[in-house]
Amino acid sequence: MLTVTSVEAQNRFGELIDRSQREPVQVTRRGRPVAYVVCNQDMRELSDLQTRRDAASRWYAQYRASLASEQGAAPVENGLTDDDVTQLAHALR
Question: Of 21, 24, 18, whose CA–CA distance to 36 is shortest?
């Protein structure tokens, strides 16, 4: 991944956009990452991933609620976090 400063990004924006078509570009300010420039396809994939994770989280919450109702227990009120979904996905691999 290419890393550029915010000043370099401003001065060479066209080049930055071209480079982002091949790989993500990290933009830093005062040595700290502040932004990433990615191509449209990568952004779509990230959005699709978030949508699938949200759907999996909703499905799992409904599943837990249905199990709880079958067992006569009160449904759990709090939902899954992204970390919970990630751990579940890794456990299924």
Answer: 24
